[in-house]
Amino acid sequence: MIVEWINPLGTTWGVWWITVLCAFLVGVSKSGLKGTAMVAIPLLAYSYGGKASVGLLLPFLIMGDVMALMFYHKSGKIQHIIRLFPWAIIGIVVAVFVGNEISDRQFINTIAIAILVCWVLIMWNEMKHTKVNLTHHSVFRSALGLSGGFATMMGNAAGPIFNLYLLSMRLPKESYIGTGAWFYVMLNIFKVPFHIVSWQTISWRTLQLNLVLLPMLVIGAFLGRYLVRFIPEREYRFFIFAVILLSAILLFFK
Question: Would you say 15 and 48 are in contact if contact means Cβ atoms under 8 Å apart?
């Protein structure tokens, strides 16, 4: 009875512990060390399969978003994401229809390439002597929104894309985290009905596993909140760049 309650999907215990780790990484990422949750994407995909892993990860991300808002809701600058949000919604809707028409391998490769292209653009901007806010360019903004919305629906892999958008504005550390939290919680909640009705990747059993592992996510959230205080601004930004690059490379092996 206890085993059925804590492991409702009936996976091996090795897979169950991988899921525990992923819940912890989401908590750490959402509360401070943004980007670390991207490591959970290939781990869950290897364990559960591409589409199933997306539905399992989404409630963890929403829980993490809520934890992040508890810490940083006053630091968020919603005006910075209003212009991006409609494009992201369009990307999500497109992905819902495309999701059943292409293979996991095809859309994962597309997401990874998009992340790498954005990473190169922002790193170029970062190393220039004259800093340019690329989000002022409407073409760049709409492309980021569409690709990010598509990526977040297809594989919960839009973190690097939207993080790059926020990073290019060079927001202070806490404003960066708070603004991202508001954006992600709105987008992730918007995606839930599509996962339940259209893709059927969220069920009572997957939600039960999410709730069972919620304590690990909370522990990760408080640990991330604690660690982010000790990371200097410059080193913090390059840590994020490194995690984004690693996440993109890992997606090719997903």
Answer: yes
Low-confidence ranges of the chain (pLDDT < 50): none
With CA atoms as reference, report the closest residue to 92 among 207, 192, 182, 206.
Answer: 192
Tokens of 25: 């990484």
Among candidate residues 155, 164, 170, the one with its CA nearest the CA of residue 119: 164
Amino acid 88 reads A
Which pLDDT tens digit goes with each residue over 38-53? 778 888 888 887 788 8
CA-wise closest residue to 77 among 165, 205, 207: 165
In a 13 Å sphere around the CA of 127, the CA atoms on its Cβ side amount to: 7
* Residue 76: strand, helix, or coil: coil
Residue with tokens 């781990």: 43
Decide: pTM greater than 0.85.
Answer: no
